Amino acid sequence: MQEHKIYFETYKASADLPTYAQALWQKAQEASQLAYAPYSHFFVGTAILLMNGDIIMGANQENAAYPSGLCAERVAFFQYGMKPASPIKAVAIVARNQANGYVPASPCGACRQVMAEYRDNQAHDFELFFQANADYIYHLPNALDLLPIRFGAKNLVDSETKL
User: Fold this and answer.
1) Angle in degrees, 0-180, between the axes of helices 72-82 and 19-32, rounded to the nearest 10
2) What are 51-97's pLDDT values in tens digits?
3) Closest CA to 55 of 35, 85, 34
4) How large is the average pLDDT for residues 127-141?
5) Cα distance between residue 123 and residue 115, in whole Å
6) Does the structure show a pLDDT above 70 at 160?
7) Which of 9, 62, 73, 160 is catalytic?
8) How far is C-alpha 64 from the chain's CA centre?
9) Which one, of 29, 20, 69, 60, lies nearest residue 47 by Cα?
């Protein structure tokens, strides 16, 4: 039997985060202001810190035809994918309601899959910070912990691959 444990830390406030993560958290909050969420009123912002110091932001984009929208995480990651100049160091995700109150925001399954693939395509792990609840921020040193058993490129290369 093999056991898989997920390690994460909690921070009481963004001021308690490491300095680089505080700046990243602020960028994610700024990105949430750019969200287009007229239906759910759930405004999500994502900021990706690259090893070279650049930051890429994304915000969720809704559409009246619901499947046509896109989560903030995928907006940011797909923008990164257009020009991956430097590896990813850390990602911050915030969500707020219409009253600008920050609310819990764990990435959805599709976003976890996208993050896992981008992680698989670089040589090292990247960190993840997201709102746990009104009082805490979760920090995962390895974003892959959100999706430990995942579908990946190896599954497509060899149809005989066993999971």
Assistant:
1) 110
2) 999 999 999 999 999 889 999 999 999 999 998 779 999 999 999 99
3) 85
4) 90
5) 14
6) no
7) 73
8) 24
9) 29
Tokens 């993560």 belong to residue: 21
Give the chain's radius of gyration (CA, Å).
16
List the domains of the chain with CATH numbers: 9-154 (3.40.140.10)
> How many C-beta atoms lie closer than 10 Å to residue 129's C-beta?
27
DSSP code for 61 = B
- Measured distance CA(59)–CA(104) in Å, rounded: 16
Token pair belonging to 51: 């090893």
Tokens 């287009």 -> residue = 36
Residue 78 identity: F
73 among known catalytic residues: yes
User: Letter for the amino acid at 7?
Assistant: Y
Distance of CA 1 to the CA centre of its chain: 30
In this structure, what token pair is assigned to residue 131?
Answer: 């709102």
